[in-house]
Amino acid sequence: MRQPLRYPWLNFDVDDVLAPAIAVRVDVTETKAEVSQHWHRKGQLVFALGGGVTCRVPSGLWMVPPHCGVWVPSTMEHSNIATANARLFFVYIEPGATELPDRCCTLWISPLLRELIIELSECAPDDVRCAFLGSVLLAELPDMPVQQLHLPISSEPRLRRIAEALAQDPADRSTLAQWANRLALSESSLARLVVKETGLSFGRWRQQLHLIVAIRELASGASVQRVSGDLGYGSVTAFITMFKKALGKPPAQYLGSIARNGGSAFVA
């Protein structure tokens, strides 16, 4: 059962703080935690030092593995789901304070940026040191490479129904024909609809969801055996084969490459 994500402050609105950049650390307990749909005047960078976070925005699902962060632009509605025992940092940035994309994206976080975020979270927004750390962070952040850990989600109600069902039960192996029957569509009509709304075939779209869930769970410490079972694979070998074919590396090497050099490992 998911618990509300508890912030380390009371009666505090980040949008009331005029500092160009502030950071807040949030530690998740042994159960999954969730921040429900909301938005800020400030842009938000969601950074995971440990564990994983999934951000949902109207256009898609974004995965935050360790050593990466998801950028959510100013006023964009979003929700965050953190794995158990995650160590999170939320960085709030004033609109126009630096040049970042006007769309949601996953960014690699360099060791320098990681340390800046940690230090920034430990000082008060009106501290001179906070202003200095924030200025360095804002100078470095636009140079971070984008990681394409993204599942396109359409606002089309029938596809959103499939997406929500698969997010709840990623092991569901219903065929395209079975989903079409449930939605009172022909198989060919549903196939065309998925491609039109997401740019992916149904099989590739579901595989992308599996990859996002797999990376999130593996990053939180789950074993390859457990993840392959949770995703409905008949064997660990079948899961590793799918993962390697999609990403070019088996799970352990892929996560290791993200930790070492960020830009070389991504989900297309």
Automatic annotation (TrEMBL):
Task: List the InterPro entries.
Answer: Homeodomain-like_sf, HTH_AraC, RmlC_Cupin_sf
Top-rank lineage group of the source organism:
Bacteria
Q: Name one GO molecular function term.
A: sequence-specific DNA binding
Where in this chain does the record put each HTH araC/xylS-type domain? 160-257
Pfam families per the UniProt record, alphabetical: HTH_18
Does DNA damage count among this protein's keywords? no
Q: Which UniProt keywords apply?
A: DNA-binding, Repressor, Transcription, Transcription regulation
Q: What is this protein called?
A: AraC family transcriptional regulator
